[in-house]
Prior knowledge:
The structure is a single chain. By secondary structure, this protein is mainly alpha-helical. The chain has one domain. The chain contains 4 helices and no strands. Helix 1 packs antiparallel against helix 2.
Amino acid sequence: MLDVSAEEFRSSRNRQEAAAEAVSDSSTRRLLLFYAVECGGKYQLLVNENKFLFSKLSEEDKGLGHDVWQREKGADC
């Protein structure tokens, strides 16, 4: 993965959300919203960990992928 900053994740999240609002196809909209949540979650993880580049996260956190919310919120996913 390229080294991505927290601000780039936030920006990407905003772009995906705006694109989802402009799309009429529900499958496309859901996919865009999924990616918006993914980028928003990574942004929040970086901010919470006080790391502002993806490369600065621990190897454990880098490998979380879609399990970020499960770890952070204790959710059963």
